[in-house]
Amino acid sequence: MLIHYIGSRKSWILLFVSLLGLTDLLILFEQGLRVEFISLLYLNTLYIILFLVFFIWRYIKETKYIASIAKLQEVMTSDWTENLPEPENELDRITSDVLKLASLQFKRKLSQLKEAQLIENDFTASWIHEVKTPLTAMKLIMDARLSDPDIRKIETEWLRIHLLVDRQLHMTRLPALESDYVLERVSIHRLAAEEIRELAPWCMEKNLAVSIEGNDAMVVTDRKWCRFIIRQLLTNAIKYSPSDKALLFVTDVMEAGNVILDLIDEGPGIQPHDLPRIFDKGFTGENGRIHNAATGLGLYLAQTVAGKIGITLHVQPSQSQGTTMRIIFTDPNTFETVRRGQEENIPL
């Protein structure tokens, strides 16, 4: 800060040097004045010391307010304007007023944006609930005529529409996930089986065999949001897997007690240069560009939800073929405090 202050006060320094130089010239060339060199040196030293004292005093006084704001920036809170230091001069007072006004305008703009977003989310949620009615009716009609091959083809397309609507509904609810979070003890095999059953028509269309291996285990998680994560991973695996291949769920328990669920496919795999970005919003990667239907949202949403409900999600090291997506559930003991608070809501 000192260097910046010196740079902003170059005019002071230039004025002082000019006046001191002019004084020295007048003393040296004025014939009526006879001043010894040692006296002239003493006078210059005295002036320089006085100027330095003045400069340091002004630096401390004028940067005290800025230094306080800089320190406040390190521990910025939502009510930071309440902690602004008291201005000591008119310039500081103007700065403080401008900061408070800017904060007020920003909060107003943010409030307007949030209100608009809530309205948009309400409209989206309303549309989703409205469109679910005809989708449900279509499902009932198709279930009554599953022997018809054409109906089975339509069912697959219906499933894709259903998945898109379901994902949009979860996207709408995502900002309020914390208020829609309920811990349960659930079977990891059951969670995987429910999603396999949900996506069975799509698997049958591509003749994909889906199986579950490994010992079953109980995990403490939110059933609905955990199923959403598995659904996004399974949807990706089905989408990128060639026909007549297999998908495999493998469960295991780490020494620390964490339950692992691996989803292994036999697709083209993820290119090494795409791995660091697969969870980025909108990133489709090399395979996604080949499949024009890719949106780059599935893995992003899965990772976002996983971070909110205490699940670790990542892809296993590069393989020659296929992809292994790993879900690691938090040690159940981690949720002990939360379980006590929601004890009556957790089935035993």
Low-confidence stretches: 336-340
The number of strands is: 7
* SSE order: HHHHHEHHEEHEEHHEEH
Going by helix content, strand content and strand pairing, the class is alpha+beta
Overall form: elongated
Largest sheet features: 5 strands, mixed
What percentage of the residues does DSSP assign to strands (E)? 5-15%
Average residue-wise pLDDT: 83
Please report the distance between the alpha carbons of the first and last residues.
61 Å
| Tally of helical runs | 11
Helix content: 55-70%
Strand order of the largest sheet: 2-4-5-7-6
Radius of gyration: 34 Å
Brief write-up:
With 348 residues, the protein is an alpha+beta fold. It has helices spanning 2-8, 10-29, 37-74, 90-143, 149-173, 188-198, 200-205, 223-240, 285-290, 298-308, 336-341; strands at 184-187, 209-213, 218-221, 246-253, 259-264, 311-315, 324-329.
What does this structure look like?
The structure is a single chain. The protein is an alpha+beta fold. The chain has eleven helices and seven strands. The chain has helices spanning 2-8, 10-29, 37-74, 90-143, 149-173, 188-198, 200-205, 223-240, 285-290, 298-308, 336-341, and strands at 184-187, 209-213, 218-221, 246-253, 259-264, 311-315, 324-329. It has a five-stranded mixed beta sheet, covered by helices on one side. A two-stranded antiparallel ribbon has the order 1-3. A hairpin with a 5-residue loop joins β4 and β5 (259-264). Mean pLDDT is 83; it is low at 336-340.
